[in-house]
Amino acid sequence: MQTLKALFINTSLKSSKDPSHTEGFINDVQVHYNQLGVESEIVRLADYDVAYGVQEDMGEGDEWPKVFEKVMAADIVIIGTPLWLGEKSSLATQTIERLYGSSSVTNDKGQSVFYNKVGGVAITGNEDGAKHAAASVLYALSHIGFVIPPNVDAYWVGEAGPGASYMDAGRENEFTKAAIQRLAYNTYHLAGMLKNNPIPNEGNTL
Predict the structure, then answer these.
(1) 202 occurs within a structural domain
(2) 3-state secondary structure of 80
(3) N or C: which end of the chain has fewer CB within 10 A?
């Protein structure tokens, strides 16, 4: 089987000059991908000047096309997001909006260009909102053509109120470690299946 490629889009509100608990979480998923022979890359969206809108390219200065090129090269796309007020980050929303801007583009079979790509979500934060954010992200990915395997909503949240974050207190959480493993393995298995047996275009062309 050809080597699978995974792209993590880290939608932390912090640029790469600052540490990100979401990126620490992503790194723990990468441990499994490295063992499985999956090539992976992390894009910190805050490092790019991404314009607002729902077009493929919003014109001069818009750096989303650079990110989208990486999406198109990937077999697996995982959106990583922190939680703010129980919601996914604004950059996670922007990522989905910009992906949606290409949802009418087709592959050589007339399907959405996102067909046969596998999606997942990685979430960190204090307090609650993980399942709500996961439902939002995974529905959006599925709606535009990504395939969503089972159990690909890996997350960690801390106790109510201010407190420690993932890299301080979450890495030894057994529930989260198991969720990270399921995310890695289920995206790997399904991406491999689709690589060898793509979804037929009968009944699903745009």
Answers:
(1) no
(2) strand
(3) N
End-to-end CA distance of the chain: 29
CB 14 within 8 A of CB 72: no
Q: Is 203 inside a domain boundary?
A: no
Q: d(Cα 173, Cα 156) in Å, to the nearest integer?
A: 8
Distance CA 17, CA 47 (A): 9
For residue 61, give both structure tokens.
């200065």
Is the model's pTM score more than 0.70?
A: yes
φ, ψ dihedrals at 184, nearest 5°: -65, -50
Helix (H, G, I), strand (E, B) or coil at 124: strand
pLDDT of residue 164: 87
Report yes or no on 62 lying in a domain: yes
Indicate whether 176 belongs to any domain: yes
CATH code assigned at 139: 3.40.50.360
